[in-house]
Description:
Blueprint (H helix, E strand, L loop, with lengths): L1 E6 L7 E5 L10 E6 L3 E11 L13 E2 L8 H13 L4 H8 L24 E6 L6 H14 L1 H12 L5 E2 L7 H9 L3 E6 L17 H15 L4 E6 L5 H14 L3 E5 L7 H11 L3 E4 L5 H13 L5 E4 L11 E7 L17 H12 L2 E6 L4 H8 L4 E5 L10 E6 H6 L3 E2 L2 E2 H12 L3 E5 L8 E3 L17 E3 L4 E3 L6 E3 L13 E3 L3 H11 L5 E4 L7 H12 L5 E4 L12 E6 L3 H4 L6 H13 L10 E6 L5 H7 L3 H14 L7 E9 L2 H19 L4 E5 L5 E2 L2 E10 L5 H17 L7 E6 L3
Bound molecules: adenosine-5'-diphosphate (ADP) and zinc ion (ZN) (2 copies).
Adenosine-5'-diphosphate binds next to helix 7.
Amino acid sequence: MRYADIVLPLAQPTYTYAVPEGMTLREGDAVSVQFGLRKYYTGIVWRLHDERPDFKRIKEVECRLYDHPLVSERQRALWEWVASYYMCTLGEVMRSALPALMKPSADNRATLLEEAFQPRTERYYRLSEELRDEQRLSDEMDRLERRAPKQYAALLEVASAEMEEVPRRLIMSDSTILNALIKKGFLVCEEHCPAAEYGTPSFRLPLLSMHQMEALEALKKSFREGGHTALLQGITGSGKTEVYIYLIAEVLSRGGDVLLLVPEIALTAQLIERMERIFGARVTAYHSKLTPIRRAENFLRLSRSKGGEFVVGVRSSIFLPLNNLQLIIVDEEHDSSYKQAEPAPRYSARDTAVYMAYSMGCHTLLGSATPSLETWLNAETGRYGRAEMTERYGDAVLPKIYLSDSRRAAQRGERQGHFNKLLLDKIEAALGRNEQVMLFQNRRGFSPYLECPTCGWTPRCPHCNVTLTYHKGRNQLVCHYCGHTVQAMTQCPTCQVVDLMPMGFGTEKVEEQIAAIFPEARVARLDRDQVTSEQAFQAIIDDFSAHRTDILVGTQMITKGFDFSQVGVVGVLNADNLLLNPDFRASERAFQLLTQVAGRAGRRDRQGEVVIQTSDPTNPILQQVLNADFGAMARCQLAERRDFFYPPYARLTYLTLRHRDRPTVVRAASQLATSLRAKLGTQRVLGPIAPAIDRIRGEYLMQLMLKIEPRSSRARANELLQQALTALLEEKEYATLHVKIDVDPQ
Ligand code: ADP
Ligand code: ZN
Ligand code: ZN
């Protein structure tokens, strides 16, 4: 009898099933199995063997799901690495690695079937044979321009798009106009699957500037000479994307696959479109906004592809079955969204990409204007290759940055609401020149709340140790940790003062004030509370890029990757709360964020202006931002990290214990600390401490931190940690204790 160890999407290792007579299975096959009495799961065959397990009733595998293995050998090796490095089970890796539809249970078993994934088709337009002749095209265009301007515009769209065939969604003109052009024999329309057979590629690439060419050569050289990972450090607007494009084209031309990782897909619609204009139908987008069926279909299609695929996707795309993967590009590599916070696997897609480069022989390029210190140090010490671009493309120059002292402004009476006079003057001037303005308000740890003016009482979440955030528009109080929502009260429960005061301020307040100061300006706001749907998000972006709005107020969201050409002024309302954050990465993050925000200003003809409001203009980080001196920031921060033994000079693991009962969790934490100190040495274990927010959803939290030297074996440390945890969790009183392990926390 044959047996199969099968990975199921559960927080458990593998489960053993019997392989029925006559069923052929290979490792990596997806199968359907019964679990418990009624449930069915999709599982992945991990190991086939003849060792009968010693439990009585062994279930048989129901059926095999696809005619070829869903998870290749290379992918399986990757899953194994993620599970062991980030200390989770293969089942947890499976949950992140496979699209939802491929791991359903019970009821929707039908959707598992291969036939359910219909390859999607799209309409494509191209010039007809006769218009391929340049002369003929220009004659017809001339004629249309005079007689049928709309048809002229449509034809121009197709003719000038730098691609063979233009997908419908990239054409603005109406279908009736396009149909008229088809009738005239100028256009041909075909409907097909985007990833039909790729012909011999001929991409129309942008011409590179000198600096871009040099950077490209440096990267190619580093890869040629055996380097597996390289850093492209280029200031905002230097044209990193153009350099990527060349590297991508080269790999695709020789039939290799490319993966371009981007931080958050909603913000990168522009990037995807730019890539589609060059690489056309080869571009596969992979992100959470796709329908589940589309994701599954992309996964399945890629697993069968012979190469030449180009995926643009978020974090989880690192798990896509690209069989001939040769290049991974991680754009904005410093972005913390590459690390999955919840649930396990708490993996970093960037670090996984680096691991893949060196274990699987592909190349990984990390790109950023403000790389993480980990990456920067690796480039500095020669472990990674490196290329730099220190100038913006074309005539564009970096913006002029002003630090504006809020305290002084207040003393002099030069402050109105949350705005210093300097910023208001700059905004007024920009609006006068018909330029746009972006205002940035970081709200983490500084969100609006209600307070009693008499006793200082503040509404708090009943389940978590935090104040509730006040949403004026909805008149609600919301817990940002557990989602607990109540109608805003007007009265203090203790002293019964009516009219609680709104304190703190977020983007909503900024929007309200700026609209009052500049009543003629069209103001919009972009933040996570406001933008609940993809369409709403896109509408705000579209309005701003078409200059239908003048001022855009937002959080972190507005700092990433947008390319708006008419932004003259960027304002940062309060840099202080970025700098005061207790996290050891706070200074690095503040520098990155402020530099990215500043980078939104003045991308084309005129030099942009950035006003950063702060009560501490002498702060070294702000000075480094002012001088755009990444090197100074990096050296200064690295010196501190070395002194205090923090990454990149140490590798951290956070352990968070939680339990309904406070004494239990406190006892468990100190017991675990003692056993870890015995195994790992006293200096390597810190804590336990109660974290700043020590109660969430009614459970109490305690934290431990492990610090391990980079040179010592991570595998060994993980093994010792696992032993300590297993011993702890076997004790009866800790049966309902949860321990969260976060390796390399962000
Ligand atoms: P980065 O990603 O480094 O911030 P981008 O790649 O977005 O910079 O480039 C900034 C702007 O300059 C974009 O609008 C881009 O189209 C333009 N640009 C950069 N390099 C070139 C080039 N070689 N040819 C044409 N346009 C370019
Ligand atoms: Zn009160
Ligand atoms: Zn809560």
